[in-house]
Amino acid sequence: MNILRIVYDFPPPWSGLSPGTYELTKAQAELGNEVVVLCGGWPRRKSYSEKNLRAVRLLSALPKIGIILTYAPAVLFSLLRLTRIYKFDLIHGHNFSPLFYHLARKMGIKSKIPYILHMHITAAGRWQRSSPKVGFWTRLEWVLHRFSERIGCQVADDIICVSESVREEVQRFYKADPKKVLVISNGVNTKLFTPNGQKAQVEGMDEEKDIIILFVGVLRERKNLENLILALQFLEKRYKLLVVGTAQEKWYYRNILRMAREKALLDRIFFLGYIPYHELPSYYRLADVLVLPSHYEGSPKVVLEALASGVPAVVSRGYQADRYLESLVHRVEGNNPEETAQVIQEVTKKKGDVDVQVVREKYGWPKVAGQIQDVYSDVLFRSGQQEG
């Protein structure tokens, strides 16, 4: 099958959404599909090819303008060019990236090629929960993102949502037809993220004596890291917090540093900044528990990465995955520091409560790619086309 993927984030760099879109594409290529990816990053990043995979770089997002007036229109022109060269069986877009392609389909520029829209989170949900501190340009981008996603939900043949919460929002905010909305979880590279292997070394941290709490994610208000930092007050001093991720909101990073200093907790927190994707497994193996205290999430890859590494995951009520994955995590219902500390304490007293084999079988990328392949086959059947 020949697939055209439209997604801005594709490695390098190996951050944000890009590892997941790459792993999915790679798994699809290994199934025998030919996949062309229209991604951002040019001219800093160059196009490249691997077996059955071709990444075509389009314009990088510009400050304050974002991808809507750079990458997004380039997608439409590239798509028109590539469809003359390749015979694509199916187009697979992600979130708001294909804005101008969504508009073209909405305006009646018919395409015989079926279209799948993949929703990782909704711009409407982010808007509803946004802080007053979010700037004007970001809010303007979100208006355009919501517009693109709403049109995309109307013109797509099927909509894949990464979690039950995203499906609910797609139907509530964008009035998507429930018959064409389905949930397929994100996956995890179970060859990379395993319990066995080298552990990271962090200066000032004693693996034998300390109980290590891991946070992986960008440092921004939505991630609610302050709740986890304050939870340290209710835990013994041997509980240490390892923070992996870049500060996307500088004001927020300054605030949590000041708070940690005022609460005399700074000596128990280790801010490591960005860690490359392929080095992350050694940090998971070092940890006793992963904690995701977010106010709001789609289906972040860090939970599956932790579970595949044999590390239990504690999540807030802002995290909602598919129903089976929900049964594998430990939830903090109140999402306050004292309750967070209590759940962390309970989880770290247990050993070996993660069924790594189940995670491998159910959430490995080959499994997820196979589920999406079934969606493709169904859409092609409905459209009267045969698989390529």
UniProtKB/TrEMBL annotation:
Keyword Transport: no
Transmembrane segments: 61-80
Keyword Transferase in annotation: yes
InterPro entries given in the database record: Glyco_trans_1, Glyco_trans_4-like_N, Glycosyltransferase_grp1
Record domain Glycosyl transferase family: where: 207-351
Chain ranges of the Glycosyltransferase subfamily 4-like N-terminal domain: 16-191
Protein name per Swiss-Prot or TrEMBL: UDP-glucose:(Heptosyl)LPS alpha-1,3-glucosyltransferase
Any one GO molecular function term: glycosyltransferase activity
Superkingdom of the organism of origin: Bacteria
Organism field: Candidatus Hakubella thermalkaliphila
Gene Ontology biological-process annotations: carbohydrate derivative biosynthetic process
Keywords: Glycosyltransferase, Membrane, Transferase, Transmembrane, Transmembrane helix
